[in-house]
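Sequence in, structure out. Go.
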Amino acid sequence: MLKKLFVTITITILFAFQTFVSNANAAELTKELRTLPLNDQGETVVVSVEQIAKGKKLFVDSCAQCHAGGLTKTNPVVNLGTPSLEGAVPNRNNIVALVDYLKNPTTYDGFEEIAEFHPSTKSADIFPEMRNLTDDDLANVSSYILLQPKVLGEQWGGGKSYRF
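Output:
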């Protein structure tokens, strides 16, 4: 009887702690943090906590196998950190640009299409995880990617990018 009571109390405390921590994390995503670059014209947009949560889930389900923590397994020099996204041609440091990339990916220098190697909606027949993603889904994933450097700093993407 005492053992059951102890287990019940422990589970209740752990559940209450998890609920508190989850709420605290959501509360930390201030409007300022959620204000992200929308396009190359300098416009910004405030994304909702729900959009970030959806983007995180989609990122984990569709992208994290190669981009865990913002790294790029196939090319550690290029990651999902702000310097790498800004250095791409065309740059990928805003929601519209990232959505475009997720539809039709190109090499870092922008010269070659790489849809057959990188998951995209264009190559959904090769990469089934991309099949049912809508433009809103792609915008949510992009928002999540752009938010991470603001929340995690240099930890997102594995630290500073190499520059050649």
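Check: The beta strands are 35-37, 44-46. The CA atoms of residues 103 and 121 lie 5 Å apart.
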